[in-house]
Every structure is written in C-alpha cells, then in structure tokens.
Amino acid sequence: MADPAPVVTTLGGGWYLVDDGELRWRVGVAGDGDTQWVFVNGQVAVVDAPKTGRRRAKHLDAGVMSPMPATVVALHVTAGQAVTEGETLIVLEAMKMELPIRAPRDGVVKTVACAKGELVQPGVNLLEFE
Amino acid sequence: MTATREGGSIRRLLIANRGEIAMRIIRACRERAIETVAVFSDADADAPFVRAADQSVHLGAAPARDSYLDGAKVIAAARAAGADAIHPGYGFLSERAHFAKACETAGLIFVGPPSSSLERMGSKIGARRLMLEAGVPVVPGETPGDQSDAALEAAIARVGFPVLIKPSAGGGGIGMKIVRMAPETTDALAAARREAQASFGDSTLYVERLIERPRHVEIQVFSDAHDNVVHLFERECSAQRRHQKMVEESPCPALSASVRSAMGQAAIAAARAVGYRNAGTCEFLLEGEGDTAHFYFLEMNTRLQVEHPVTECVVGVDLVQAQLAVAGGEPLPFTQESLTQRGHAIECRIYAEDPAQGFIPQAGPILLYREPQGPGIRVDSGVTTGTMVSVHYDPMLAKLIVWADSREAARHKALAALRDFAVLGIRTNIPFMLHLLEHPQFIDAAIDTGFLDREGAAIAAASVTELPPAAWAAVAEHRRRVGTGIGTTPSGTLDTGAVDPFVSLGGWRG
C-alpha cells in the first residue's frame, strides 16, 4: 500500500506546512543555491543537489585546510619536514578558542602556505604534502 | 527626599557591548525611560542591537581590540553622544578596573562596582588572598609572584597533579588548562599565556589543585551605596564544555537548605570584603551533595552574568533594572527577607558551533531564524534572519530560558521550546542540546563540571538527524519556488512511497 503524496502549503518566509496524510509538519527551508538547509522539530540537515561529476575529495589529503576563518597563532612545521599522522602542524585561533590542525597522514611537508598572525579562510590549503 | 525619575540620575546610557546582552540592557532602559546609545564595530553595523538603540556610534574595525575593547574610544563615544552612564555588559571592558576608573574620571556613571572593587577582585590571585582573610573557603593552590616557567613549574609540583592553570584576568575558561602529567606543563603554560594575553591583555597565571568531578554552583549577590548587601540564591552551572557554560539552572538540586544558606552568607562576606556595589556573582566549586557537601570560593565575577535570567525567573526580579537603580544612587529594590525561590528555571545557551565537528565555532549568514514563544519561555538573543555571524566574537547567538513549577516540568518545556527554535545557515548546538536534556544523567541532575568534556562527543555522535519524509517534500517545493536544484520532482508533492529522497534530492548531512 503506497502512502498518499504529501501536500505542501507554502507559508512564506521559508516555512512550509506539509500534510503527509496523517500528521502535519512545519518545515523551514533556506538557501537558494545547490545547497538547502532544512529544519523540522529541532532537527537540522543540509541537503546538497546531486553532484555533476566534479569532485575534490581526491585532493583531501594533499594538504590541510582551516574549517573556518581563523588566525594562525603557531606554526610547528617547515617545508621539507617529515610529519606523522596526528601530529599538530598548525594552531589556529578563532572565536577565542585555539584549534590545532593535525596531520591527516604520515608525510613530508612540501610547502607552507600561511604565516603566523595571518587571517586564513576555509577551503584554502594552509600547507601541502609531497 | 526629592522626587526622582525612574532610573535615578541616569538619563542616557551607552552600552559598551554587543549582541544579546546589548538588547537585554536596551529593554531595561526602555522600561525606565532611559535613552540608549549603542556602539558598534564594522562587523556589527547592521546588527539588531544597533537598530534597537536610540542612537549609535561607530567604534572601529571588527577585531575587539580595535572596537569593543578600546576603552578610550568607548568613553569618547559616550561624550560625543551626551551619555551620562555606561553599562559594560559582560566580557569586553566589564571587569577592567582601569576602564571603570576612566569612567569615574570622565564623570560617567559606570553601571557596576567601583573601580576599587574591580581591582581587588579582578585579579583572581588577589581575590584568593582576600577571601582567605575574610574566612571564605578557597581551593588549595599557589599564586606565584615570579611568573617564569621555572617558578610556575615549581608551584605546580608543590600543588601536585592534577592541577589547573588559570589566568589571573578574564573568565569563560579562556586560557585555563588542566595538567595531569609533568611533560604536559611547558605546552600548557605557553598556550595559557597566549590565550590570556590575546583575550585579556594580561598573561599572569596561577595554579590550583584540580578538584575532580565538582559541581559549579554560584551565588548572585547585590549591594547598593546604602550598605545593603543581599544574595539572590544559587545558579547551578555544571553543564559546561571546556569551561564554557552550556546549561544553567536554579535551584541547584544538590544543595541542601543549610549549605545554600552557608554559601549565601559566604558570598555576602566576599562582597563586603571588597566594598562591593551593584550585581556580582561568587562562583563556588561544590564537592559532594546534600548537608555533607563542601564548597570552595573560585572567583567573583564583578559584572552581570550571562545566566542572570535564571535568577530573574526563579526570584522574580529584574537584575538589569536593579543595576540601573543602584548605579543611579537608589537603594536596592529588594531586601533579603523579601527574596525567595519559586519554581525552577533552566537556561540553554545557543552557540554557533558544530558538535559533530568537535564543537568548532561556525561563522556565516543566518538564512532563517525563528524563536520559540509561549508561557514560561524567554529568549534573549542578538541575531535575526540575515545576521552575519562573525569570527571575531563569542559564538553565543541566544539564550533560551524556561521557567516552570518543577525541574522536570522546566526540562520538558525546554525540550519543546528547543524543537521550535529554528536556526538555518550555520550549525548550532540545538540538536545536541535536545539530546543533552534527555540524557539520563541530566534527568537525574547528576552532572559535574567534567561531564560534557567526557560525554560531549558521545552525545554529539548520538544526535543523529532523523528527518521525516515530510521534510523532503518541503525541500522539493522550496527548490521549485526558488528555481534551483537538480533532480527535484517537478510538482509540489513528492511520492515518498516511490521516490528515494536521496536519489531525487542528492546527499544530505545531518
């Protein structure tokens, strides 16, 4: 027995009332790009549109990135240095908290692309491995 | 007695703060017919508190040291705006004696204690010594005058592991480091100094014996210029992560009437010992529970606390209005005999942080924001839809405070309110908070200050997002309306029986 199709009423301001035939749900949705944020009953999820082939996962271990805008407060490695997985490479500070950036794997540092005191952005390599 | 207007001598007040606390102070001023002046940094030009104030003055660049921490700029702004008083809120300049002194020199009323009290309590090291003299119990520890690594390491060795390294200035757990083994000492000292210097401009450290599994219980005190000192009972703040409080409540379920009374008297003695005036909080560590519990003075917070609404709900007072009255020279609006605790209040701090990623603070635009409402529900917030959450300041967005007849009723009210609290665009701790409030140890009120550091990751991992199929139908409709998205169903309905939302909508991340 198939469930009946849910009926969606647009409430405005990103809010939708969804009647699934049994219960009514108030759902909040936001975001106008390929990514939407969705809220229902205190739960939050991020929904990505299906990817169209481009992947960046293969570069994931080629370097390390900051998860957010932050300031570099300590730099523990230099180019050419061998590091082991879990070793602290860089210490960032954001929102008054220190965030250690650790080596994702064993390797040798190829280049260091940030400097102490620098404000760094997410998604940009702070250093690269060979 | 001459007739005075509401608010005593204060006519126009500058708020030297931002976010939810600036909004809170503006509300109190409105009720007392005091005009308000907001100050703001580049990052806050469009913030709700700037719009809510009667006037606003731009201070400078986004980093706090160029704006909210620049006392000279704040005082110049007060002069330019014709303000006669400054409320510092919490954090920033609130506990800086030199700033209070500068206000006094400039002829501005500082809504807080006299600079002399701040000097004596602002140094946590000095406060420890004063409390020992006043007969208030303190945690065993050392306060080395020589701040070299060698001297601090020697002090640590004498206190014995595990120890807690603490900055003499500041609060909020910033710069505090637990050291369990000697080899960790050098790194911990360096990190503590760095964080203390960056946040407070003072890298002086001291050392205390680490009391394992204590509760954090604090007493609200209030005194005026007419020699009245009262306490307004306790707040239980043990639910904290890395010394950053997450949930506060009152009354503290572990406190017996006799220990509550003894702590209240100790807090009053502490306030008297420093000639305190206005609202303050004595923080204690509580070891054990019931009549056999021991308490140790930790520090006095010489300001309004983030968690002050918990006391306001349970005691039935307005602490910010009382601050304004006392700062204007009026006597306290309440006496010790008039104060009682009624019902139970719980505060949940809503942080822009991602519990699934080790509670990393989040920055970015809030795309959708809606606060819960209802009887016994209060939200103090500084954001709205469209607010850009900045990397420059504390990640606390809002506070949810609920009040009900009993602890269990308050807990259920908090859960219902959290389920109705929508923040989209950045991750918050709301889903985490829903699980924390359902944790057996929270239900049993058996939480110590280390609980979230031990269990936080497990609670975050258990906070798995389970969206009903209805959510996918709403996403599909939203995509149709905004004209984006690939692979959504063409109509406003989604046949959940036949269509796999993962296929039609793409991947999702709880």
What does this structure look like?
The complex is a heterodimer of chains A (130) and B (510). With 130 residues, chain A is mainly beta. Chain A has strands at residues 7-12, 15-19, 24-30, 35-40, 43-48, 63-65, 70-75, 82-83, 88-94, 97-102, 107-112, 119-120, 125-129. Chain A has a five-stranded antiparallel sheet, with no helix packed on it. In chain A, strands 6-13-11-8 form a four-stranded antiparallel sheet, with no helix packed on it. Chain A has a four-stranded antiparallel sheet with strand order 10-9-7-12, with no helix packed on it. Helices cover 34% and strands 24% of the residues of chain B. Residues 1-7 and 485-504 of chain B have low confidence and may be disordered. Chain B has 510 residues and is of the alpha+beta class. The chains are: A mainly beta (130), B alpha+beta (510). The interface between A and B is large, with 52 and 68 residues. β5 (43-48) of chain A pairs antiparallel with β24 (508-509) of chain B, so a sheet runs across the interface.
